[in-house]
Amino acid sequence: MMIFSQQSFAQKLSELKPQIENILKKYKAKVGVAIHNQDYNDSLIFHGDHHFPFQSTYKFHLGIAVLDQVDKGKLKLNQVVEISKAKVTTELYSPIKDKYPNGTSLPLSEILYYTIAESDNVGCDILFELLGGTEVVDKYFKDLGYKNFDIKLTEEVQQANWDRQFENWTTVGASNQVLHDYYVNKDNRLSPESYKFLWDTMRATKTGQDRIVNLLPKGTIVAHKTGTSGRNRKTGEIAATHDIGVVTLPNSKVFYISVLVSESLEGDANSAKIIAEVAKAAWDFYTSK
């Protein structure tokens, strides 16, 4: 379990509000922002009640639920999982599919890595199936008291119909709460081995390099998970350009940040730029005082 100093950041995030407002007003998008300090006793939230489509950020939650089953002895990270050719015969984004077009067998740990760090959709749905369905992940968190989210559909189902992606939803505050609780390993929910695996994998995330990490100093440690939708052919809107994560500051303290961009008419590059600018503003806020 990671132990932190109890000293809070002296400055209050409310001071950052005008700057974030100036960033958001430049763009045609619905943007949810949640920033919390290390001690989780100071926050800045925009559009906190809005239901944003989860998209692939829920793979972080899925990974936690899988690791919980590992810790309970029901699964093993080194167990081999069969991936049939039928499972990789799909239009879904999947590095597993690209590398193994005829199917393969992989250890559970590798499928978890692909799913979280590379946002693999085939791996994601294999893990949901292994657990017994999306409802198992949803129930795991709700039994612990988490609210303001729903995990209902696999990647295959939510990506087959534009409207269905909105059945998987979260708020920015709910995303930050899970980030915080599992980063500090609240109530020792994960074993030391599973904790290390989860956060090493989050720090290895390869997707979304144009988002939280983009404008931060080179070498900044960011453990994060992205989510991305396509574009609505009728309206031109992008439903989801997301990134949620834990950013380590030069003084080794951290802050938690979720930026969920929806209903965006800005295109892919500018939608990601919103996230990068908000993250940079938070970074500058904490490092300039």
From TrEMBL:
Catalytic activity of the protein: a beta-lactam + H2O = a substituted beta-amino acid
InterPro entries: Beta-lactam/transpept-like, Beta-lactam_cat, Beta-lactam_class-A
The enzyme's E.C. designation: 3.5.2.6
Pfam families per UniProt: Beta-lactamase2 (PF13354)
Domain Beta-lactamase class A catalytic: start-end pairs: 32-261
Family per record: Belongs to the class-A beta-lactamase family.
NCBIfam families cross-referenced by the UniProt entry: bla_class_A (NF033103), SubclassA2 (NF012099)
Name used for this protein in its record: beta-lactamase
